[in-house]
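Hi,

I'm pasting everything inline rather than attaching a file, because the server keeps stripping attachments. The sequence lines come first, and each chain or strand is labelled.
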Amino acid sequence: MEMEKSHSEDLRMLIDILRQGNAHVMELEAHLYNYETFSSETCLLLSSKLQSTFATAITMIKLMEQRGLPSLPSSSTDSPRSQSSERSFKEQERREMCKKRKSLPRWSEQVKACSGSAMEIPLDDGHSWRKYGQKDILGAKFPRCYYRCTYRHSHGCLATKQIQRSDNNSSLFDITYRGAHTCNHGFQKPSPLTNEQIIHQNQSLKVKTEALSSDEHKPESSPYFSFPLTPKSCLKPENNIFSSASKPENYEGLDSEIADIICASNSTTSSEMLKIDFGVEQFVFDSEFSFDFY
DNA sequence: CCAATTTGACCGAA
DNA sequence: TTCGGTCAAATTGG
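And the predicted assembly:
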């Protein structure tokens, strides 16, 4: 009762903090998009702001956990009855996680394999992935591989991707991403590419954002899919339109097609970006910031 | 020894 | 029940 009140206050604060973090992401993105004002210093600054935002949020969640929420399984002082509920608590947590993952934005692209020869592996997208599964898919010639962000546990980064070799053209890979990276290990220093390389890669790359059916969520609230974290397809080094290593005329030289791709997943237009939130309710409760359980 | 991958088990959705 | 996605123990590789 008393507890509940302060709990909801905490939540409100937490939400504010996360909103702030979101604002920083916007700002960061704006810088990435604006070639004129782009500076790595600014980005680093924003990145560290983001880090501290998340750190604060994490700390808050931990505190709230200690105070108001069911205690962690580790404490052996619990009454026996809480032990029986421990299982269902974990179970519940798992289910919530599942739900959350499904609600994450999704987009896919087709990527050409390294045009070497035998080494048929899709290009590295600049993020660090850890394979966690492989499945034979009904009616598909090749198995589907499942990857999650390497930093899932250390940073609570929920990004995942699936890679599946195309049936008819085995040098093509369908890659489906789910969830934007919240870790900041993502963007390795982009290697300089020539103009031709960029153009070539742009041509061989199709990005389609799968706007999830809006009936899946109450449309009026949480605009999940307008959360405009730039998909890797925009930021990944091999497409490094924004890389300071590539010359400005690269960007200007490339036509609106690229801009379309860049905007594809932000299709809700930048004017809407400002009122976007994380779908915070879910984010707060389900987030995997409980990394110290692992 | 640690971190990544492999692979069968498990679980929820359809 | 089947299928697709994830987990986690066993295995591999550095």
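Chain A has two domains: 1-70, 105-293.

If the labels don't parse on your end, tell me and I'll reformat.
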